[in-house]
Amino acid sequence: MRILCFLFLLITATVFAQAPKKPTSSEIYHDLQKLNFIGSALYVAAHPDDENTRLISYLVNEVHANTAYLSLTRGDGGQNLIGPELRELLGVIRTEELLEARKIDGGQQFFTRANDFGYSKNPEETFEFWDREKVMADVVRAIRKFRPDIVINRFDHRSPGSTHGHHTASAILSVEAFDEAAQATKFPRSAAEFGTWQPQRLFFNTSWWFYGSKEKFEKADKSNHVSVEIGTFFPVLGLSNGEIAAMSRSKHKSQGFGSTGTRGSEKEYLELLKGVKPPDNDLFAGINTHWSRLEGGEEIGKILNPLEKNFNFKQPSAMLPQLLEAYPLISNLKDSHWREIKLKQLKQLIWECSGIFLEAVASENSVNPGEEYTVSVEATNRGNNRVVLTSITDPKGSILYNQSTELPYNIEEQFTLSKTANQLEPEYTSPYWLEEPGSVGMYNAPEALIGLPETPVQEQVILELQFGDITIPFTRNIIYKYNDPVEGEVYRPLAVLPEVTTVLPEKVMIFADNHSKKVSAAVRAGENNISGRLFLETPPGWTAQPAYYDFSLGHKGESETFQFELTPPAIQNEGVLRAVAKVGDINFSKELVTLQYAHIPHNTVLLPSAAKVVRLDIQKKGNNIGYINGAGDAIPESLKQIGYNVSTIDPAAISEESLQTFDAIVMGIRAYNTVPQLAFAQPYLNEYVNNGGTLIVQYNTNHALVTEDLAPYSLTLSRDRVTDEFSEVKFLDPKNPLLNTPNKITQKDFEGWVQERGLYFPNKWSKEFTPILGMHDKGDPQTKGSLLIAKYGKGYYIYTGLSFFRELPAGVPGAYRLFANMLSIGK
Ligand SMILES: [Zn+2]
Fold first, then answer.
1. Cα–Cα distances in Å, from 795 out to 89, 170, 369, 482, 677?
2. At what angle do helices 25-35 and 336-354 cross, to 10 degrees?
3. What is the per-residue pLDDT across 153-196, written as a single tens digit (0 to 9) for each?
4. 3-state secondary structure of 365
5. If you measure from the C-alpha of residue 92 to the centroid of ligand 1, how many angstroms do you get, rounded to a whole number?
6. pLDDT tens digits, residue range 785-825?
7. What CA–CA distance (Å, rounded) separates 141 from 135?
8. Under a CB-based contact definition with an 8 Å cutoff, are residues 19 and 489 in contact?
9. Fewest 10 Å CB contacts: which of 23, 57, 518, 675?
10. From the CA of 725, how far away is ligand 1's center (Å)?
11. What letter does residue 17 receive in the DSSP assignment?
């Protein structure tokens, strides 16, 4: 029943993810308040979810400041609670979640090129992966472009090691950027593009959490703190600030951050780091945030300020004459920064007041660059003003419609136009930061796009509307929508996609010997009636049969799968296999991934159509492996790839007899945290070992274990971890069979590991255990608990916090060889 409800919610919400804003009078009034505030605030942290939505909502909705959140990363490194996407695809989901959160609290969203590569213990470790100079350049660029009066850091730059290294690093960079943004000699390219900028104040958004306890915070010296009452209730919106903040935070669904709104008084504390302490807890004190701040602004203020007082909630269009009067004045503002911001806000307000509905709908959900397609433009004038549509153009120049047409009162007007899809850079509707490969810690991005949350929409129209003697261009993204018999109106972005895409469904293929394997490759049409050849591009030493298949697909969206026979080389080797579709003279080798979630817009992502192929030099003993699933991992599939027969063991059915048939039994990650039945199964598992079996237990956290007895001898779990996947590994017991049979393990086997070495290692164990490996992160003492083995009766018990659950699915050869040794030890 719960599952059904959940699905229902998902579907319902999808309908609204892209729907156009249809503001009420109250919301129009709220937008007017924002128009009349001339000031900006920038919030800085490291990840999606770091941002304090209470403070952001307060700055937008109470102060009415132009507010943005600069998240240094897109959150690629975390877990995904709503689907299978990890790494860069998770980063795309979290980018969209941030954008949805900002739609609710009213802020804007920026990023840097820094990649959330995973956990780091301190900023020094972070800067080994992030290119400090480039990330710094991006923070400075964001400040120069956005020109905040105040900058607020989520984290403390003075306490490295007390939180995630990315967090402290974000604060360190922000503190430096606060000064460097004002110096033309620093990062001269963004200085030339946007000018230099000196924000007035820098704060650290502190709270009791940073002091360890509420009591310690009570007693702390707060002479340099500003406290802001943020518990505002907004009758115009019908919501309290805490309720808006919770709705915003609840968009972080991939992290499970659903949040319940609060009402009533609430305080935020900001410690002043730079600038003059503001009197009266007013963050913008002493900064002119009125129209008079701008040269030529006084006159605009005289027109726009009174509108708030005299706002007509029954008929917002009553203020249209004043808005139109201000339009040429704002268009002529000398200050180009504020001209651009205020013109955009004013145009939005003019459109909202006018009651005009504007929408451009494509005839299909995707087009190819250069393809001709049909766009239906609706322009319905529901206000009582005379409005003339003078033209519809493509932003790149071509005129689609140019007959002056008066939009009659409340008559639905449709214009059917033929349009050619633009051939732009970037060419396709796909995240720009994934176009070129980056490094572990950095994304690549074209200079012009750095900082942008998304790839700019390629397909748009500009509708010029004439109000009296003033003509205003309104830009609309071309969208796709359809009517669903159950859901009603469903919106999607129009995607510009390649003519053909390919896919290799298996992303990592392991070959344990030199036998060939069948490999599936599919080709998908991005346009009607397309034909060509599909072939596999193999790494040196690998061969694919047949050389190619001819394909011919009739309809856009149609796909066909072909089987190739892939033969590995005779010796250990790894490489990248690509699926390529040749159409005419052009090779297409991108895979199309679509992300469909209720709370974010439909997303298309183009990735290299590739798979990692690994020929292992591996020996193994034993065949039948029993697997007890924990929190979920792909180890069983990986073991099957190297030829093991893996069966899932139902933890409720564990008995002495049921385990007998297995050569080894493996516990999935966090099994002792997530499988309640294991509280009662341990005696059987111990007995299985006693009788000659091998039990391998992968990592568990020491919090909330279903039993303390997860081994035949005493073993204490800790939070020790080694996050640096390149850290040196010492062989503590070089003669141990785990390092020698059937595979001789050498340093080479610890090369190419991903993400980390391991986590939650035991730090105490009884004398029966032998520690096999020593390792540590820079500056930390050596850990010896990553791989422990003990003889018990006739069998072996192994506990390992090594991150096999990451390494095996990533096709890391050394991890396979070591795992095979663990499975083989009793044989
Ligand atoms: Zn964070």
1. 43, 50, 64, 63, 23
2. 160
3. 999 999 999 999 999 999 999 999 999 999 999 999 999 999 99
4. coil
5. 16
6. 999 999 999 999 999 999 999 999 999 999 999 999 999 99
7. 10
8. yes
9. 518
10. 20
11. T
